[in-house]
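User: Second chain of the day. Same drill as before.
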Amino acid sequence: MTNTILRYALLFIICVLLQVLIFNRITLFHVAVPVVFIYFIIRLPINLKLYYVFTLSFLLGLIVDIFSDTPGVNALACTLIASLRSPIYYAYMAKDDITRRLTPGISTMGFFDYSKYLLTFVVIYCLLVFTIEYFSFADVKGIVILSAASSLLTFVILLAADSLIPVKSIA
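Assistant: Same format as last time:
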């Protein structure tokens, strides 16, 4: 139990540091911005109590907001996707006792199901963030382009990161 908590604390810190120190400075073609810190929310165990998921997601978003100078945007988006985590997961996985104890990942869900889960998660997050940032539907084309490009870049990075993590590293 303590070992698992320490692993998730380390993952939390690594995700925040990577986002703040490296990925916030990357903009591909002035359109795509990688959002890798949401990997922490994606990798939380499905059977984790909802109030822990909300608290951790809000804190994660708030910390990234503080360092990124985006007042509340990531905190709101992280909290919203935290509420969608289980429904997205069970849209691709059977709802039984075995899947309730799993931690989402390539090694537990399989490549195809995890890819669908990850892509859905990333697209929803990017749409939320860019819609909140624009705070208007006047430039729908801009929101869609930014969301699609950022989603694709983030998806590729997170899929690569998950394939590099050993099976028993976080669970």
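The mean pLDDT is 88.

User: Great, on to the next one.
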